[in-house]
Design goal:
The protein is 23% helix and 33% strand. By secondary structure, the chain is α+β, with helices and mostly antiparallel strands. The strands form 2 sheets. Strands 1, 3, 8, 9, 10 and 11 form a 6-stranded antiparallel β-sheet that branches. The protein has a 5-stranded antiparallel β-sheet with strand order 2-6-5-4-7, with helices on one face. The longest helix is centred in the middle third of the chain and has 15 residues. The two termini are 16 Å apart.
Amino acid sequence: MTNHWWWRPGVRSGRRLYVWHILFDGRPEIGKLAKECQQRLITVPGLDPVPTPWLHMTTQIVGFADEISDSELADMIASVSERMRSVTPTSVSLGRPLFHSEAVVLGATPREGLDAARSGIRQAVAVTVRTNQLADDPDWVPHLSVAYSNSDAPAAPVIAAMQPPPPPVDVTIDRIDLVSQERVGHCYVWDGVASVELGAARSGAEKAPVVGPGDEGKSGEQE
């Protein structure tokens, strides 16, 4: 395992990023799954468990907020909302541990189940945001992080603790959320910016994205 908490290029205290996440508030089954994994890992040193309210799947990092204008932000949200109207909500299964040197993560299967949503987000970002970070993350393995490594240590205890794998949990992904996020210590603190539903065109609904932090402002880890 290696330390997750190194400073990425351009990232500094107080500097915010716009990030599209899949959030799991209102999904107690996902919180229960994460808690089971964290309980298995409780004797393994050097790990920071992700608090239940801040479980998420990072879907696309957009870019630094101080490099994106308000008009670009509004255009991106509108473009993502339009593209998500034709993306069908999809069910994925979480539970299969994947190896990651900086975190303990559970893969989402089928792996390609969320590709349409992410592709739509990336297309929208490409045509609306001039200074973006699309090139930094061309490949994507959808996953849920349950703990982050805060030191360099052998991976064997983590691998052993996660065997056998926890029973998988099925969840339907029917919305994506844009957050404004910064790192504070060993946490990423975020405020909700917009929430976009998937499949509005198929349901016949004409719902605008929910814009503004409302009650979604929160802090948690990323990636």
